[in-house]
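From the pipeline queue, job 12 of 40. The input is one protein chain; the requested action is below.

Action: predict structure.
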Amino acid sequence: MKKKGTVLIFAYECYPHNRIGSAIGAQRPFQFAKKLSALGWKVIVLCSDHEERNTLHLKNLKAAVYGLYQTHRLLLAEQDYSIVPLPSLSHYGLSDYLWQKTIIKGTGGTYLGKGFPYSILRKATTFYNQLFHGDYSWSWVPLAEAFFETLIKEHKVDIIIGEHSPDAGIILADKCSRKHSIPWVADFRDPVLWPFKGLLKLLYKPVVKRIVSSASTVISVNPYWSSLDALLFQKQTHVLLNGYDKTLFESVNAYHFDKFTVSYFGSFDDQFQDIIPSLKAFFELLKWKNFPKDITLFYRGLKHAEFVKHALSCGMPIDSLDVQEFCERETSIAYMKGSHVLLIYSIPSYRKSNVYEQEGFYPGKVFEYIGTGNPILLVPSDDGLLDALICAENIGTSAATVAEATSFLEDQYRVWSLGNGIDKKPSPNILKYSREGQATELDKILTTVLQSNR
């Protein structure tokens, strides 16, 4: 097959070299690479090696890049898509050095701030770094840039995709695009200004607009955020969902649960999500059947301790819970496919605090849920994007109250207790929500950008 061109993706987090806490986001560039290569593109992803972050001294940068390039040289030449994991510097500049002294590693590879007096220094260095260098991914930038400069001597790069967040992807895409006159596309997994407030948001806004000004177009993960990006950047924007890996889902067999199983997978954020109504609804289901032994609440993810705490606070008997920490992807998919109801959370009206939260959002796992064809329960409703998706595709229910959610669980339990298994209602548009379907849309975007730049 004649190649359409070479796509270079800067992605700080990319499977399989990502931290656990970025599982869905890390799948995005990996799936783009794999699926685009099947559509006739050569794809190279430069990502951060989670196991080698903050390990390299600046004096060893050139030697490290040379060695890594020689290691990957043959694969880069022969493979349709290549994922190249790169280390990052122990620190990059004084401000980065000071910032790293104020944090410790948390669950899933997250960063947790130390207490006073480090908290004061962390705020100051975060403020400075964000405005002048970028965020915590800054120490990876010189490695990725140096590798790119070596790579481009032997491989013509036709178009660049800068993955965000974090900032490194768009910073590198902008710089390399300007230097080598290569068109680039900004791919935002989250709204770029969402985490910021007050003065920092006001000051960072022109910084990110300057970075993205050189991009040919902007991609977002839902239509509402896409509309906000269009206003912010004054550019044409596109929507590419996260999707599910159709090939992988078809290869994994569903786990057989002996009990009626209501499941949730992954993380949640108590600041803007509320899992309590779903737990109360499950408790009401248990009471309705006088606490039977054939109903279980199932959870796998990094927030297992918090999930148990919330469940017990709602009166849940411990023997009705099957809660454990993060499990590998294939195992998680098997559990998803075998679950009788899949819980999902967005942002309810009473937790919406800024413009980016007004329509809720699409949690990445909702598309994997769609890939199972199993019924989905959203409670409380976000009265926005996720509510509309579930209703339009008829793939479950969006409940405004605990009573509505309980009624839905009771209906699903009746189906199961009659020996009918899972009440599957696959979306009629299921292929649209696959990674393959979304890669086809990205293929069109990249082709258009290239044609307009010739």
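Job complete. The chain has two domains: 5-92+133-242+434-452, 246-432.
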